[in-house]
Amino acid sequence: MKFLYKILLWTMITMATAFGLSGYFFVNYVFEMALDREVSQALDDSNILQFALETAALNIPGKYDILQDTAVQEIGVNLERRGQGSGRLLRISGEGRKVLYASDGFTEDQDLLQSIEEDNIVWKVFQQGSNYYIHTGIVVNVMDRNLYLETMEDVTQVFEERATSFFVYRQVTLVMLICSAMVIFFVCMLLTKPIRLLAGATRKMAAGDYGYRARQVSNDELGQLTQDFNRMANVLEDTIGELQEEVRIREDFIAAFAHELKTPLTAIIGYADLLRSRQLDEEKHFLSANYIYTEGKRLESMSFRLLDIIVTKREQLDPQPVEAEVFFRYLEDMFAGNTDQTLRVRFDPGTVYTEANLLKSVLLNLVDNAFKASDEGDVVEVSGWNTEKGYAFQVKDYGVGIPEEDLKKVTEAFYMVDKSRSRSKNGAGLGLALCVEILRLHHSQLSIESAVGKGTCISFELPASSPEEGKRNHGEGK
Q1: What's the domain range around 57?
Q2: CATH classification at residue 440
Q3: What DSSP letter does each residue of 152-201 carry, written as one string?
Q4: Do 434 and 330 form a contact (C-beta atoms < 8 A)?
Q5: For 58-95, what is each residue's pLDDT tens digit?
Q6: What is the C-alpha separation between 415 and 251, in angstroms, rounded?
Q7: Which CATH number goes with the domain that contains 85?
Q8: Residue-wise pLDDT tens digits, 434-453
Q9: Are the C-beta atoms of 450 and 418 separated by less than 8 Å?
Q10: Is residue 297 situated within a structural domain?
Q11: Cβ(153)–Cβ(88) under 8 Å?
Q12: Helices (H), 221-277
């Protein structure tokens, strides 16, 4: 059952129960009040009849010392004649509860008669056929005789009014429930609209429409829930986008890796087959062996760099203070024999917190990429200077440059802007990917600026102190 119908059903059940109970108690309260008035009136009438009976007995000529039964019957006739039209019946009994006079239609009920006692008036309400009566009884002492005076008064109208009240109340309650159901249904539709919108948004997203958002129609708790749902949907969409991008990168990595393996392996297998199947002269033999050696070294370099990337993803860095000059002197020594391009080094004295071997690998890869992107005779500049937060490194070349659409992808493994140029210089597209992972361990990142035909400038910044020392100095400053 829908939530809307549950609210409507339970509201109607609650209202019907409330109306039913309140109506029952109200109508019965009115009925009890009316019945009490009738009982009080019947008791008053009984007292009046008692007085009238005593008065009538005293006015009878005193021929006898004791009131005769015939006189009692005559008094009963007179009393009933006076009460004609009132719907009242009476019965007079003598000693031994023997009936001396009774109105026509008076019920032959002896229970109340037997319970009558002196100085006490008794009464009860009973039903006879479709009518209701109040039956009263009282002892009357006249002329040394105890007479039992009983009355019956018709109170059917009171019970009929109660039945009519119940009928009218049921009709009114039914009309009110129908009207209330329509109003409550409309209100429930308004209150549950945000829930229906959220349910629709959930189904849309489950069907793959991650950009769909629920419309906010209120500012209450349900409106806040809609806002939270949309925020969750935004995070989910971003996460799914990141996962899809990661899947794409992995697929590209696998495809590139397979391709990069295929090229050198084809050359190695081909030249190895040539060496074993034919008798070659010394020059061809040397060229074939050289191709095998070159492609083997390329595979070795690629495997080492892949291993470095995997290791950097898992290692914890233990930085130590190192003078920046160490790294620049290392680069000068490494590329001192290069005759195609010129390495120009400029740096300020300073200290960085790093793991020396890892930072050397970063700088070596950046300078190597700069040389590969430069033409013969170009200059590659390596610079270093102190900053407010630490020490900055920069590698700049004036080579082919990187197109703007490729800037975001150059740090992906195996991605090469110019594949033919990279392969001709034994490149595999792993250098920048390795640099990114090493700098990630240093809580730093590459900043790349490039223009096609003008060259590329890559920089990064490392802290000049350890995180623990920075926290300690910050505490002392307070």
Answers
A1: 3-168
A2: 3.30.565.10
A3: EEE-HHHHHHHHHHHHHHHHHHHHHHHHHHHHHHHHHHHHTHHHHHHHHH
A4: no
A5: 777 665 667 777 888 888 888 888 876 677 888 988 88
A6: 12
A7: 3.30.450.20
A8: 788 778 878 888 888 988 88
A9: no
A10: no
A11: yes
A12: 221-277
